[in-house]
Design a protein that fits this description.
GO terms for molecular function: ATP binding; kinase activity; metal ion binding. It is built from 9 helices and 17 strands. It has 2 domains: 116 residues, 3-Layer(aba) Sandwich (Rossmann fold), CATH 3.40.50.10330; 158 residues, Tumour Suppressor Smad4 (Sandwich), CATH 2.60.200.40. The longest helix is centred in the N-terminal third of the chain and has 19 residues. A hairpin with a 3-residue loop joins strand 10 and strand 11. The chain binds adenosine-5'-triphosphate. The site of adenosine-5'-triphosphate (ATP) has 20 residues, from helix 1 and helix 3.
Length: 299
């Protein structure tokens, strides 16, 4: 049986609309399903666990944005039972959907899920007993995630279907005040001492922050995380280089370094904010480990 976890508030109400269209398709096709709707932050995780344990579903489809996907994935991870993740995108950023090439159209997305023809196992990034499915970011990045999540303008811009601008505006705000610091990275036993670090992004997919390509080479099913480090660049230099991230052209920038690894420790001069899938998760020092092939998804 299939379970659905629906965030009606995702994409500023798009979740509700998408679910209405899915429901009529499911009824037309006589699909047997269970549905749970979220009413607040964090609830998608609890509802996913409930669907697995009480309803014995073998697949959960997250209807919402990246926040909903991340919470459902944590529910599946915590339940520890065989359960496939499906996703019908209805958020404002939808990085997971982009990163896995999922259809934007709800009818096409559910058709693909029901056909079960494209299942694959992907890696997860384990941090502090939880998991991230898209990315973990420390430093500038963590501060931008915090600023965006706390900002009133995110809601307004989402309403105008300009959700991406909320992230960009937060980047500009944080860029004006953020102070880079020295960081020690330990990747698979190898030490990297790095000076004046702005950000460290650990990625499972190339997509980030609603359409940026932070780690264009990242693959979700290779058992390795792609790590992007931005170091020793001036504030103005970073401001001018920033637009390159939308096309992935930042890979050639002299102050951008790419590393790869399975076990990553980040230690820093000062505590750095860390996000997991765009939600605040921790402060440095942190340890991130790849859980290879841990989650089966409908790709
Ligand atoms: N019924 C609800 N009312 C208000 N907020 C909710 C409700 N259910 C869940 N939430 C919260 O809505 C927030 C946004 O969810 P989600 O990330 O799925 O969508 P989004 O932010 O529009 O998309 P994206 O993350 O792809 O940009 C999450 O913080 C979630 O916890």
């Amino acid at each position: 049986m299939i379970g659905f976890v629906v965030n009606p508030a995702a994409g500023n109400g798009k979740g509700e609309k998408v679910w209405n269209s899915l429901e009529s398709i499911l009824r037309q096709q006589g699909v047997v399903y269970r549905v749970r709707r979220t009413s607040s932050e964090g609830e998608a995780e609890t509802l996913a666990i409930e669907l697995i344990e009480k309803e014995e579903v073998k697949m959960i489809v997250a209807v919402g944005g990246d926040g909903t996907v991340s919470e459902v994935v944590n529910g599946i991870y915590e339940a520890g039972k065989e359960c496939t993740l499906g996703h019908v995108p209805a958020g404002s950023g939808n990085d997971f959907a982009r990163g896995h090439g999922l259809p934007k159209d709800p009818a096409q997305a559910i058709e693909r899920i029901l056909s079960k023809t494209r299942e694959k196992c992907i890696d997860l990034l384990k941090i502090n007993g939880r998991v991230a499915v898209n990315s973990v970011g420390a430093g500038f990045d963590g501060q931008v995630a915090k600023t965006t999540n706390e900002a009133g303008y995110k809601k307004w811009l989402n309403r105008l279907r300009l959700g991406k601008l909320a992230y960009i505006w937060s980047v500009i705000r944080v860029l004006c005040t953020y102070c880079p610091c020295d960081v020690t990275l330990l990747i698979d036993g190898q030490v990297h001492q790095m000076k004046r670090i702005w950000l460290i992004a650990i990625a499972n997919i190339p997509n980030y922050g609603g359409g940026m390509l932070i780690c264009p080479q990242a693959l979700p099913d290779d058992g390795v995380a792609e790590i992007c480090v931005v170091q020793n660049v001036t504030r103005l230099g970073l401001l001018f280089a920033f637009p390159r991230i939308f096309t992935g052209a930042h890979v050639d920038h002299p102050n951008v370094v790419f590393l790869r690894g399975r076990q990553i420790t980040i230690e820093s001069e000062q505590p750095l904010l860390v996000h997991a899938d765009g939600e605040m998760a921790a402060q440095t020092p942190i340890y991130v480990e790849i859980e290879a092939g841990k989650l089966r998804i409908c790709g």
